[in-house]
Design goal:
- By secondary structure, this protein is α/β, with parallel strands linked by helices.
- It is about 40% helix and about 15% strand.
- Strands 1, 2, 3, 4, 5, 6, 7, 8, 9 and 10 form a ten-stranded parallel beta sheet that branches.
- The radius of gyration is 18 Å and the shape is globular.
- The structure holds iron/sulfur cluster.
- Iron/sulfur cluster binds next to loops.
Length: about 325
């Protein structure tokens, strides 16, 4: 598992003009002078979206820690000693109360995450009830539950699920260096099942894990060249967690993060590109540069799954200072 009301389903722009990208083409974007790259990304952005509108999702961890998988960046893997307190699947009423509070604070989408390799059928039944109740509040629903077995995506669709998050995480060639307990193809298989069930796909990655720029470009190509690009693309900046194998990874140059946002915007012009993990460590000025480079979605609330997120008041102030509106 890794880590989206509007009265109707999301104003997700149609991914109309789908084209095939090559890694060299995306690398050429990365190699542009930053001002030229950001300018081009902003032009593409304005052809598809209101440049001053940002979609806000709130993310709740409904089952925390104790995961069997070995994702090297993750505080929730049972294989690493991260001081994380494990929690069982939350009761339905607590989830609904959290969703109601998020809606009152201005979130349009409520994402529920569970740290599993994949849901067992009896656990899935409980998540289905959560999806139904959150949907009934008039919010968009999203879940991230790990890998799905045949038939599970259809059940989620029937319950009213709008988005399923399942990140590709990183380039296929680098993947084995950070995750060994399941494969890149396993992730693609779940994305296929979600798409076939008629659920919107939320899939992105994490940068700053030690991958090369070519790996970052390849990840964007793998997402953009899916039969239909994901409607939502979270771009995470690694938050090194003590106790995980990536605890000592040096921080990525922030401008490389901006370049990744811009390249994702250009390669997936109609997708919502989300500033995700790592935003708390960013200055307001860097976030503004990311919005200029085409990011138009973010997590909103005091916490992501287990890492911090800029507090709501700081976000509201940033929106006011930049003249942004929440959608
Ligand atoms: S599958 Fe999800 S919860 Fe489990 S270790 Fe990997 S990222 Fe963490």
């Amino acid at each position: 598992m890794q880590a989206s009301s509007l009265s109707a389903v999301a104003p997700c722009a149609p991914n109309a003009a789908v084209r095939r990208w090559t890694v060299d083409e995306v690398l050429a974007l990365y190699d542009m002078p930053l001002m030229d790259l950001v300018f081009r990304a902003q032009q593409v952005h304005r052809e598809h979206f209101d440049a001053n509108a940002i979609q806000r999702s709130t993310l709740l961890s409904v089952k925390t820690g104790g995961c069997s998988e070995d994702c090297s960046y993750c505080s929730q893997s049972a294989r690493y000693d991260t001081d994380l307190e494990r929690e069982r699947l939350m009761p339905l009423d607590e989830v609904v109360a959290a969703a109601r509070a998020a809606k009152d604070k201005g979130a349009s989408r409520f994402c529920m995450g569970a740290a599993w390799r994949g849901p067992k059928d009896n656990d899935l039944d409980k998540v289905l009830a959560m999806v139904r109740e959150v949907k009934a509040l008039g919010m968009q629903t999203c879940v991230t539950l790990g890998m799905l077995k045949e038939g599970q995506a259809e059940k989620l669709k029937e319950a009213g699920l709008d988005y399923y998050n399942h990140n590709l995480d990183t380039d296929k060639d680098f993947y084995g260096q950070v995750i060994k307990s399941h494969t890149h193809d396993d992730r693609l298989d779940t994305l296929d099942q979600v798409r076939d069930a008629g659920i919107n796909v939320c899939s992105g990655g994490i940068i700053g894990m030690g991958e090369s720029r070519r790996n970052r470009a390849a990840l964007i190509v793998q997402l953009a060249n899916l039969p239909t690009p994901p409607e939502s693309v979270p771009i995470n900046n690694l938050v090194p967690i003590p106790g995980t194998p990536l605890a000592d990874r040096p921080r990525l140059d922030p401008f490389e993060f901006v370049r990744t946002i811009a390249a994702a915007r250009i390669a997936m012009p109609a997708s919502w590109v989300r500033l995700s993990a790592g935003r708390q460590e960013m200055s307001d000025e860097l976030q503004a540069l990311c919005f200029l480079a085409g990011a138009n979605s973010m997590f909103y609330g005091d916490h992501l799954l287990t890492t911090g997120n800029p507090e709501v008041d700081r976000d509201d102030a940033l929106f006011a200072r930049l003249g942004l509106k929440a959608v």
